[in-house]
Amino acid sequence: MQDIRIERTTQPRQKPDMATVRFGRSFSDHMFLMNYDSKNGWHDARIVPYGPIPMEMASMVFHYAQEIFEGLKAYRTAAGKIQLFRPEENIRRMAQSADRMGMPAVDEDMFLEALKTLIRVDESWVPEMKETSLYIRPFMIATDVALGVHASDSYLFCIITCPVGSYYPEGINPVKILIESEDVRAVRGGTGYAKCGGNYGASIRAGVKATRQGFSQVLWLDGVERKYIEEVGAMNIMFKIEGKIHTPALNGSVLPGVTRKSSIELLRAWGYEVVERQISVEEILEAARDGKLEEVWGTGTAAVITPVGSMTYKDETLVIGGGKIGEVTRRLYDGLTGIQWGTVEDLFHWTVPVSK
Amino acid sequence: MQDIRIERTTQPRQKPDMATVRFGRSFSDHMFLMNYDSKNGWHDARIVPYGPIPMEMASMVFHYAQEIFEGLKAYRTAAGKIQLFRPEENIRRMAQSADRMGMPAVDEDMFLEALKTLIRVDESWVPEMKETSLYIRPFMIATDVALGVHASDSYLFCIITCPVGSYYPEGINPVKILIESEDVRAVRGGTGYAKCGGNYGASIRAGVKATRQGFSQVLWLDGVERKYIEEVGAMNIMFKIEGKIHTPALNGSVLPGVTRKSSIELLRAWGYEVVERQISVEEILEAARDGKLEEVWGTGTAAVITPVGSMTYKDETLVIGGGKIGEVTRRLYDGLTGIQWGTVEDLFHWTVPVSK
Question: Where N6-(pyridoxal phosphate)lysine occurs, residue numbers (chains A, B) (predicted)?
Answer without folding.
Answer: 195
